[in-house]
Specification:
Shape: elongated
Structural class: alpha+beta
Largest sheet: 7 strands, antiparallel
Number of helices: 2
Radius of gyration: 27 Å
Number of strands: 14
Oligomer: single chain
Distance between the termini: 97 Å
Strand order of the largest sheet: 1-7-6-5-4-3-2
């Protein structure tokens, strides 16, 4: 009778021990928090075309980290999970993928250490998520009058349009926009709304293929096809020397 009573108490205790052991094992398999430390204060910079800030390349940890609003987000490629915190260092708590701000998806692939695998193939329209940009030699960039945009000379251009604005490069090909932090290599597809408005100031005759969605807007602003001060006969900006005139009008 005594033995049966002891066994009656022992069975629930064994069941509880097994439950705790399974919970501990599950916790070990998926880290619910992430500890992030920096050797020194990191330098944050804005990601062009977004409301996101990222850490300068030389100051980064092994994780991809971004600031959006008042929160910080870290992506751990080891387990493919996202973490968030109100502080840039210390303990980050795991969050559901649905809690990740959509603006982070606009960060060009070239800005990541490890681009989230779950985001591949999710670009709209089924178009290619990236393209390769290569020049035969180091291209020569020249400023576009009246803008802060630079363009490659006509003789050095590929079959698509490539521009430099700030610290980023933008390519327009087959009705899609791509961007990169480098002038050559893999460019990542971006949405039209992520394209800096400054690029729309580049005159139509500086393009190989002018975006169709911009044509009506351009005609409203400049009915004659060129902004005031342009040489309508030769299609070159004011101040452009005659030596380079024949490089324009090919786009």
């Amino acid at each position: 009778m005594i033995l049966r009573s002891k066994m009656h108490r022992l069975v629930p205790m064994l069941a509880l021990s097994m439950t705790l052991a399974m919970a501990a094992s599950a916790h070990a398999g998926t880290d619910v928090s992430l500890q992030i430390n920096f050797g020194s204060t990191p330098h944050w910079v804005a990601v062009p075309g977004t409301s996101v800030r990222e850490i300068r390349q030389g100051d980064r940890t092994d994780y991809d980290m971004f600031q959006y609003g008042r929160s910080y987000y870290a992506y751990n490629n080891g387990n493919g999970r996202w973490y968030s915190s109100r502080r840039s260092r210390g303990r980050f708590i795991m969050i559901d993928d649905r809690s990740v701000p959509r603006d982070l998806r606009r960060v060009p692939r070239s800005n990541w250490r490890n681009y989230p695998a779950a985001w591949d193939g999710q670009r709209s329209g089924g178009s290619s998520a990236s393209m390769m940009v290569n020049f035969g030699s180091t291209p020569h960039w020249a400023g576009v009058s009246g803008t802060r945009v630079e363009v490659v000379s006509a003789a050095e251009r590929p079959d698509y349009d490539v521009f430099r604005y700030g610290n980023s490069y933008y390519a327009y090909n087959s009705n899609r926009w791509y961007t990169s932090s480098r002038e050559s290599g893999q460019f990542t597809a971006i949405e039209d709304r992520s394209v800096p408005s400054e690029l729309s100031k580049v005159p139509r005759n500086q393009w190989r293929n002018y975006p169709a969605s911009w044509q009506s807007q351009d005609q409203d602003q400049h009915p004659n096809g060129n902004p005031p001060g342009w040489d309508k006969k030769n299609g070159v900006p004011p101040g452009q020397d005659k030596k380079n005139r024949n490089h324009h009008g090919n786009g």
